[in-house]
Amino acid sequence: MMKIHRTPWLLAMSVLLHACGDSSLAEPDAPEPAEQASATQEATAQPEDILTQLQSIPGLTVVLEQPSPFPGTRFFVLSFEQPLDHERPFGERFQLRMTLLHRSVDAPMVLSTEGYIVASTPSQAEPTALLGANQLSVEHRFMGVSLPESRDLRMLTLSQAASDSHRAVQAFKPLYPARWLSTGGSKGGVAAVYHRYLYPDDVDATVPYVAPSSHGLRDGRYVHFLAQVGDEACRAKLEAFQVDVLRRREELLPFVEALATQFNTTFTVVGGADRALEFSAVETSFYFWQYGTASTACPRIPAPGAPAAQTFAFLNAVVGVAYTYSDRFIAPLEYAYYQAATQIGWSRFPARHLRGLLRYPGENTPDLYLSFPVTEPFDWGAMLRVEHWVRNHGERMLFIYGENDPYSAAAFSVRARNDSFRYFAPQGNHGSSISRLAEPERTLALERLFTWMGMSTPSPSHLQGEVPDRLRMNSLGE
Question: Is the pLDDT of residue 96 over 90?
Answer without folding.
Answer: yes
